[in-house]
Hints:
alpha+beta
Amino acid sequence: MEHQHDSLAEALERMLATHASRRNSLRWLLAGAGAAALPLAGCGAGSSDASVAGATIASAASTTSGTTTGTTGTTGTTGTSASCTVIPEETNGPYPGDGTNSNGSGIVNALTLSGIVRSDIRASVAPGSATAAGIPITLQLKIVNVGSSCASASGAAVYVWHCDRDGNYSLYANGLTKENYLRGVQETDANGVATFTSMFPGCYSGRMPHIHFEVYPSLAKATSAANRLKTSQLAFPIATCNEVYATSAYASSARNFANMSFASDNVFSDGTTLEMASVSGDPVNGYVVTLTVGVSF
Length: 297
């Protein structure tokens, strides 16, 4: 369980996510009514929220929603991803490592680390040395430009981060402040896809399993959170989580997951349609996790 050592940070994440959830609910309500964009000054849950909230509402109201459903392989679970809709803005939480907060020893910015641009994020780069263990996943985030009929956004950059199988975040958890595993940046390819090799995240008390990510206009600009275009989170199908957490290595996650639901999650409680990943695979061979991410460039 991640937050036994940091109850203040956990409370902060709940507070930030609650504001983000309320803002997202308002945004989708306005979009469904075809309302014009309205300023949402003072509603920010993260440092980037206030600057993008109005633009997000405008994009959601003016674009046509389309969905595609992906069916898994051996797991039999399904996920739905939007094909041409701006993904909701979500809190980056108390552990972003993007230069927007500190870990008690100073500002934490993994984006400036040498070697942080990599596809395999399971091991730390210098000065860290640890490697995160767990069931492997191949994470594929397809970035599309909603402002250009959802054309593939090649040449963009994506920063991802998530907790390890015990629910701890590198750079912040006790004993991990010098480590930076499960964090990395990738440039999208010609098809707009950023691909990462990682491991299935654990489930800690208070949150459904998730992966954080930030989208940047280019690799050159993916060194400062001030340049991010979108901050959001990826959710996993319940059946896949049950399958993973049934393995002995994820025992603590199984206990936490048994007490969680999307309805009680303070980020996903307002819906997961645009954030639910499609998953294929199994605990023995690993999983392929995919999500289409709509961003207005």
